[in-house]
Amino acid sequence: MPHASTSPNILAVRFSSIGDILLTTPLLRAIRRTHPGARVTLLTKREFVPLISHNPNVSRVIGLAPGGSLLRLAAELRGDEYTHLLDLHDNLRSRALRALVPGHWRGYPKHRWARALLIHGKRNRYRDRRPVPERYFSAVSDLGVAPDGRPPEFFLGAEATEQVGDWLISVGFQSELNIVAIAPGAAHATKRWPLEHWRRLISNAVMDGLSVVIVGGPGDAALAAALSDDAGARVANAAGTFGLQATGALLKRARALVSGDTGVMHMATAVGTPVVALFGPTVEAFGFFPYTREATVLELPLPCRPCTSQGGPRCPLGHHRCLVDIEPAVVNEALGRKLR
């Protein structure tokens, strides 16, 4: 597609997942601010398109369908005359795409060796202390853009806001101003705070006069049901009920979110909701702490941390102290500070 010679035509590739995609939005915002006429295309998986679909800093979002043909996609992309090709993922699929779409591709530092040394040798050799949202800027060093220090952005459509409004009416929370959200689920077991800790936190929140909404995807529905069953009228279970857009709208209605190191945490920061985040097997050096001043991270200085880059099915040492030893009273206190 033709483009003005003075305006960049940019393809940014980030296939997954929720948090990683939202963390590209400070870069997208900076590009739009510095180059208002730029054409910016984001390529991701189809399931994650709603994270970017209403973002005014993006001209087009391409969603790769499950099982979609990379060859067909590459043929389409080759006709678009991109001036900048940004690989913000650097995995097997994005590398294959780079081979199929010729051009000067640029990426960002993932620091794999430093991460491996920290996990397996417990030696921190990270010289680049930037969080991942700022590392993404390495891919556009010639565009004169810089981080503005503001959080990620998750733009919501009117339909999602209306859907959440109707749901809040159905659970009796329509006029509730003291909603807090909790996200007990995580893709990997070692990132999950113990179920009994969540129960105690919910009980404390209700006693403090708060209403609790449990959020998460379909995979979190059973866990959320275990927490909400017999919990009382001031606890509502929304896990598995909404898509990404409506989940974002629900988080926006909450005064705060308590979660582990998950995509929901980044969704909350991107809609401006304060966060209390519980970090266990992962650490700040990896670059994925919540990217906002409105966040409190609770973690313990254990010598076994970090034990993995993304979490795993079980604690390698069998004790899971990194999260088990974060007491509900400590989390409740941190939540209270967010609500003052």
What proportion strand?
A: 5-15%
The count of helical stretches stands at 13
Could you spell the SSE succession in H and E letters? EHHEEHEHEHHHEHEHEHEHEEHH
Question: What integer value in Å does the Rg equal?
Answer: 21 Å
* Percent range of helical residues: 25-40%
Provide mean pLDDT, rounded.
Answer: 95
Indicate the CATH topology of the largest domain. Answer: Rossmann fold
Largest sheet: 6 strands, parallel
- The domain count comes to 2
Name the poorly predicted regions. Answer: none
Structural class: alpha/beta
Under CATH, the homologous superfamily of the largest domain reads Glycogen Phosphorylase B
Report the principal-axis shape.
globular
Secondary-structure arrangement, i.e. CATH architecture of the largest domain: 3-Layer(aba) Sandwich
* Strands side by side in the biggest sheet: 8-7-6-9-10-11
Oligomer: single chain
Count of beta strands: 11
Question: How far apart lie the N and C ends?
Answer: 52 Å
General description of the model:
- With 340 residues, this protein is of the alpha/beta class.
- The protein has 2 domains: 9-143, 3-Layer(aba) Sandwich (Rossmann fold), CATH 3.40.50.2000; 158-339, Glycogen Phosphorylase B (Rossmann fold), CATH 3.40.50.
- Helices cover 34% and strands 14% of the residues.
- Strand 6 (179-183), helix 8 (195-207) and strand 7 form a beta-alpha-beta unit.
- Helix 3 (70-78) crosses helix 4 (92-100) and helix 7 (158-170) packs across helix 10 (244-253).
- The longest helix has 13 residues, at 158-170.
- The termini are far apart.
- 42% of the residues are buried.
